[in-house]
Structures are given as structure tokens and as C-alpha cells.
Amino acid sequence: MISIIVPVYNEQGSVVRTLIELNTALKNFTEYEIIVVDDGSTDSTLDRVIEVKVENMRVINHIENLGYGRSLYDGIVSAKYDCIAIIDGDGSYPAYRIKDLYNYYPQYDMVVGARTGKEYKKGLFKRPARMLFNFLVEYASGRKVPDVNSGFRIFKKDIVMKFQDSLCTGFSFTTTLTLIFFLNHYYVKYVPIEYFKRDGKSKVRHFKDTLRAGQIIVEAILQYNPIKLFLLLGLGNSLFGAVVGVFNFFFLKLDFLSIYAGISVASFIPVFTAGLIAKKLQRINQ
Fold first, then answer.
1. CB 154 within 8 A of CB 190
2. Average pLDDT along the chain
3. CA 56, CA 123: separation in Å to the nearest integer?
4. Most-buried pick from 80, 153, 215, 225 (CB within 10 A)?
5. Torsion angle of C-alpha atoms 284, 188, 180, 164, degrees rounded to 10
6. So what's the pLDDT on residue 244?
7. DSSP state of 165
8. Contact at 8 Å (CB) between 10 and 39?
């Protein structure tokens, strides 16, 4: 028994193929439903979804564009089954691999398709940001995170609903899910999958959405494990100050740089102390 949620926004060129592939892949499931959430598409996406002959499918229509995360959330709330799968409707994920992810359910609380291949790795802006986010999540959780924001995953509805107030309504919804499951010590399994070039133009606003994702990651670390963030800030600032001090001592001999380096190195103590206080406050509020 599984509910598959497919959020779509102006995906007229790929949504039918995605739904047909999903319908074929689900033939071996005894009970399933496909929930398509059209997020205010301005092209013929909704018409094509309604016309396609797919079993056990229903449609949720947003008359206005409310965001990727809100589309997923509305689908999750309306789902009949506790086993939830999500997949984008743009043709970038291999719908036929749904069974490979489902093989690890319910032993794992969430099973994620970890993207591989050149389409996933390309992008001068996206790749460095993705590496930074992966590092922060791995640092905070102490666990390996191959793909922090994959849009192809299976998870338990009851767990997500416990944290519904923490979910993001935008493109960072999947990043939020990853943080919730890892930082609350749920079992997460990653399964390598192919990742294809999407049909049509991406809806992601790279700079704005990257900043939003970074904000969400920092907020989550502050909420669940604040001392690690303060420790990282303190060490980073102190090491930078030490490098500046050594460079200045051998090459520049500037007094103000010596003072700056000394303050930066010494700042580790108050920053780490602030982390201890934040950790104490977190325990009190739990």
C-alpha cells in the first residue's frame, strides 16, 4: 500500500510520460494511489493530467501557484496510506525504480533515491552549494548524506506529520525532510539512482532558493544540535585569525592585523560558551 505524490507546475511536456511510467511500475503493488498536485499551471499540464488514462489517480488543483513544498504537503495530508512516495513530474527521476526504493520499506523510516550521473553533478553554482549543504548536514547529524535534497523518496506519513510545523513550503521541502529524519535519529537508506535532464525549464531560482536552503539548514542545526554550529563558527574564525596572524608576522608586520588575529583566535572561547548556553536552553525547552 503506497501513495505516490507527483507535484507539477507547467510540465505539459513530461507529466504524461511520468504518470504512465509510474502506473506501469506500480502494477505489482496490491493497493496504491497516485496523487497529482497541479500547482497553478499556466500551460496545458492540468488538461493532460485529466486526459491521461492512469489507474487509481486523483488530482488536487491549486488555482494559484503556492510552491513545491505546499504541493507536496497537500498531497501528503490527503494520502490514504502511511507509506508516502514523492517524485517530480519533470521526467528527471526514473519512475520505474520505485520498487527498488520500496524494497527497504518499512525497515527504514525513509528511503531516498540518491542521484548520480553528469546531469546531477553539472552546474557551476549548484554543485558548490550542494557540497556545502551536504557537509553541514553530515557535520550536524554525524551521518553520511549522499543527497540532501533528492525529490524521489519514500517515507512514513506519521513521522512527517509530527513535524508539519517545521516543513518548508518552497523548494527546500526535501532538504527539511532530510534534516528532520536525520536530526531526530530515524533510519534513512540511500539507493543510487539515475538522474536525467529534465523536460522544460527549471522552476528553481538558484540564488534565492540556495539562500533559503542554507537558512533552513542553519535553523535546523540551531534547533536540534546548536553546539555543533557554534563550535564550527568558533573554530573557523580562530583558524582564519591564526592564518592571518602568521602571514602578517612573516610578511606584512601591520599592527592592526596583529590585533585582529589575536581577537579572532581568542573569540573561540566566547563563541563556544554561547554554544553551551544554547545547548542548555535547548534541553530546557524540550
1. no
2. 90
3. 37
4. 153
5. -120
6. 94
7. G
8. no
| pLDDT tens, position by position, 140-180 | 888 999 999 999 999 999 999 999 988 888 888 999 999 99
Map residue 152 onto helix, strand or coil. coil
Where exactly are the structural domains of the chain?
2-224, 226-285
Instruction: Give the count of beta carbons closer than 10 Å to the beta carbon of residue 278.
Output: 17
Q: Which residue in 15, 10, 4 sits closest to 62, CA to CA?
A: 10
Which residues lie closer than 8 Å to 25 by C-beta, 6 or more apart? 95, 96, 97, 98, 99
Strands 153-156 and 2-8: what pairing?
unpaired
Q: Which value, to the nearest 10 degrees, does the dihedral of the CA atoms of residues 260, 265, 269, 271 take?
A: 70
Q: Does residue 158 contact residue 195 with C-beta atoms inside 8 Å?
A: no
Q: Per-residue pLDDT tens for 211-223?
A: 777 888 888 888 8
Q: What is the DSSP letter of 163?
A: T
Question: First and final CA of the chain: distance in angstroms?
Answer: 34
Block residue for cell numbers 608586520: 253
Element (H, E) at 57: strand 57-62
E strand spans, 81-187: 83-86, 110-116, 153-156
Residue 197 is predicted with a pLDDT of: 86
CA-wise closest residue to 35 among 14, 67, 71, 6: 6
pLDDT at 204: 67
Torsion angle defined by CA atoms of residues 61, 65, 68 and 69, in that order, rounded to the nearest 10 degrees: -90
Report the top-level CATH class of 2-224. Answer: alpha beta
Q: If we measure between CA atoms, which residue out of 92, 134, 98 comes closest to residue 117?
A: 92
Contact call for residues 213 and 175 (beta carbons, < 8 A): yes
How far is Cα 9 from Cα 159, in angstroms, rounded to an integer? Answer: 27
Three cell numbers, residue 202: 527549471
Is pLDDT above 70 for 22? yes
